[in-house]
Design a protein that fits this description.
alpha+beta, 6-stranded mixed β-sheet, 4-stranded antiparallel β-sheet, 16 strands, elongated
Length: 315
Amino acid sequence: MNAQDRALTEQNSLFGGMDFSAVEYMLEHSTLRELAAGETLLQPELANHNLYLILEGELRVQLVGQAMLEHVTIAAGECAGEISLVDGKNPSALVVAAKPTRVLAVPHDTVWSMVDQSHEVARNLLAIIAGRMRNDNSALITSHNKRKQFEHQATVDTLTGVHNRRWMNEAFPRVLHRCAIDKVPSVVMVIDIDHFKRVNDTHGHLVGDVALKTMANVMSVNLRPHDLLVRYGGEEFAILLPDTRIEEAKSIAERLRTMVAANELHSGDLIFSITISIGIAAAKPEGKFEDFFGEADRALYRAKESGRNRVEVAT
């Protein structure tokens, strides 16, 4: 080992805070490896028998799954392969050179001899492993938070902030099934903004967006905590009212219709109002969500044919 490589090895985290000369002689069976950019150092299919001290360059750790995901990078002065070396199992990730990299491969037996010889080496190795585990935990937490964020984005309508059709298709049948098991009534409600195309054509889509957001807010505020509200189409919303009879559902629908009509909408200097039509249908224990939704939708169509700004109950 030349003087430059010795200096680089001494700077490795494995020998931090100790007299390197006390264990230097034990590295005589270690070998230098030069990796080209993209060359593999460790892979899950092959057992690992070395601790790799990175002298120059950089390694990239990739998690192996349905897609290759970059997990972390390891720079000069750090180690690679310590987990698989300690537990005797194959590496759990693919480790490749991010750029031309030089490593010192320290054999398994040499690592344990240095641990027996030096408390500092043992302490540093434990610190390296603990740091790797801590980083992995942080990565898992970050990954979990991102997944939850993506799930939220996939099921929430970005304009109005209420849930979307994708969420409805999963949540509504599940809640209806629970109501059937508990033998409690439930009602499906379908809502449509009257003449919404006219609002967009007359005032523009930004004003239409204000109408949608205001309507969603009015309904959210005036529904009960256990009611389910979604925007499933352009100006179309749906509500599921668990543990609710049709008479109570009609009263709720009338209240929503009245409050939307009475609410003033503001967009710049423009002040206007909208009305809604609502169709409602009682859910039956033996039926399917699509059937109840269809009944409510047909009731909504009758409400529109009858002059709009009204509530119709499925017969």
